């Protein structure tokens, strides 16, 4: 793939595509989308330092779901899809523990206006949308005072109640739709299961969140009251399976191949749910491996 590294916009020539905007491999972050020859796309699951000049990049192919790791020079130009896919935002919303339609609240904040800093008052209302803007995820909240605000997603917190319609202009409070006792019990059991799982690192959590967000956006996972718990549950289930298989003496390569075989079997039998589950577990497993390698590579404190 010929590269162009002149000043200004960097590009790389892809077979069957032509010139595409590019970045150096050392700029990549988990969750970003890469494009390769003939338009093939992958999602970056983990980026680890392999040596002073090389990186180890773990990716998931969009067409096959296969998770692979490639060694790239830090300065190697790669074609990054500049327009983030919508499921990246969906994954961020899921990771926040919120859902579209949830009633949220947030404190006042200071923003930079044309004439200097300005204070935006605190607000409360249903979360209607989210998108990427200015390098962060921005939410659209229809406040109860009739103002539509766009605060950063990470400052929102859940408020009591949920609504699927904007508050009426008459000021009548929105009807609260409480979760049934059975639903609360299921979520409580899920939380207990997650607590009992082995320690889950940042790479595994990010990989599971990205994988579940992709499946939700593609319509393979229905969005309901349990969706927000799925990334953590996926990471916990995978971590427990990996722990058991490692205790039996299996290597990470053998575990990955076993998961890939299960995915292939599900695909042959037309089991869409099985394919979806193993895709998410493959991604979480790649994150677990990256977390282990990161911990091993971390410098140890000198003995006193």
Describe what you observe in this structure.
This protein is α+β, with helices and mostly antiparallel strands and 304 residues long. The protein folds into 3 domains: 78 residues, Roll (SH3 type barrels), CATH 2.30.30.30; 77 residues, SH3 type barrels (Roll); 117 residues, no CATH class. 34% of the residues lie in helices and 28% in strands. Strands 1-2-3-8-4-5-6-7 form an 8-stranded antiparallel beta sheet. α3 runs antiparallel to α6 and α4 packs across α6. The longest helix has 26 residues.
Keywords:
34% helix; single chain; 3 domains; alpha+beta; SH3 type barrels; five-stranded antiparallel beta sheet; disordered N terminus; 304 residues
Bulk shape: globular
| Topology, number of strands | 15
Average pLDDT rating: 74
Q: Pairing-aware structural class of the strands and helices? A: alpha+beta
Order of helices and strands: EEEEEEEEHEEEEEEEHHHHH
Low-confidence blocks of residues: 2-8, 83-87, 162-182
What kind of sheet is the major sheet?
A: 8 strands, antiparallel
Strand content: 25-35%
Estimate nothing, just give the exact number of structural domains: 3
| First-last Cα distance | 51 Å
Q: Using only CA atoms, what is the Rg? A: 22 Å
The strand order across the widest sheet is 1-2-3-8-4-5-6-7
Number of helices: 6
Helix content: 25-40%
